[in-house]
Amino acid sequence: MSDNFVAASDGSLEEFKISSPNGKELDITDLIVEFNIYEKLSSPLLMAEVLILDAAALLSNLPLMGQEKITGNIRRGDDVKTVEFFTTTVEDVKNINDFTVQYTITLVEKAYYNNAVSLVSQAYTGPASEIITRITEDYLDVEIDADQTDGNYSVVIPNWNPYTAINWMTKRAKNSNNVPCVCYNTFRNGLQLKSLETLFNSEPVDTYFYNKRNDDTRVTQIGNAATGRESVQTASTMYQTTVTPTAEIIQRGGYSSRTVLVDIRNKSHEVFDFNYDEYFPSGVSLASTKVLSDNFKINDKTVSQYPTTVQRMFYHGSQSFGQSVSDYNGTVLDNVPFRQSYMNTLTNFQWKLGIKGRTDIQVGNTINITMVKNMIADENNPDEIIDERRSGKHLVTALRHQFVKGSYNIMLDCVRNAMESEI
To answer: What's the pLDDT tens digit per position in 363-391?
Structure first.
């Protein structure tokens, strides 16, 4: 174990170099003002950007043309992560003075360029997770950590680039409980295909508060180590961006929908009416109480009793590949309505947090948020101020790792589909 002390927001960039196709290589570590890496739960792409303050005429001397490779090490204590990105564009060029230029370079992984020069034109048979794994390995040259998905498909991918094919197959990826899967990319653990059940059931990485900073008296009472821990748990930024957009969720089929599957081979059809009130007790959730109240009614009927709010129609030929294999649309009744419900109800509560950087938080993790009521705290009953209904587990859906001159911070978006108790 290292004896080096690591402060809550320590994080440094080391040996960052840029190399051009003409063979030139320059160390740009001292030119970097800010370095950001972006993760999104809805995308298999890992993006980054670097803000450069250039007094070395890098733009003209390299020259910088959006075709370069950037490598370097990101250090936090004894943890060192080597990164490799490729430039795509140079944006926001500003002349600071006669000798200095500032600009932002957008960055992508090598897989982005593999995707740009590849087309998938191939038939596949197997679970969605197996098909996605084969595409990522064969065309993007990357490994993926994938949950096993339910069902077998026989599909033909018609000259699509790999990311398009992956996103297409992800729409049919679900586990045995009809819980949808998402495909996303992370800075430290790479490409992931995970069911929402796996993500919802994961242990929260930590608990965050907005107002847990302490004064000198508090330090004297509990000591520096404890206040240091509380500093880590204190969000520098915490605000709610969305609160229960009920009308939007209704219109997108989050609470009720009708899915029609037309069998063009047998000239028949099946109908499935999704009812959120009936499904919620058996489904998976980030909290125990659904947001949609049983007392909220439209024309004396609950929202879930209106299945034709959204109606989707799909076509397929049954048993075209035998009884054990489905075509792409063969399982939509067990897939599409549930996916739409999960994805839309996750927008019920959305938060943005700014926290101190750490190596164990990524998109797809869960964190606990502790909220307080709008009331004066009673020192004899400190728990009374905690808002139990709004506090609890949240899913991280977007994240920015921000490195600025020896400091590492994280800005993240997190969501929640339910509450801990009724209103």
So the answer is: 999 999 998 776 555 565 656 667 788 89
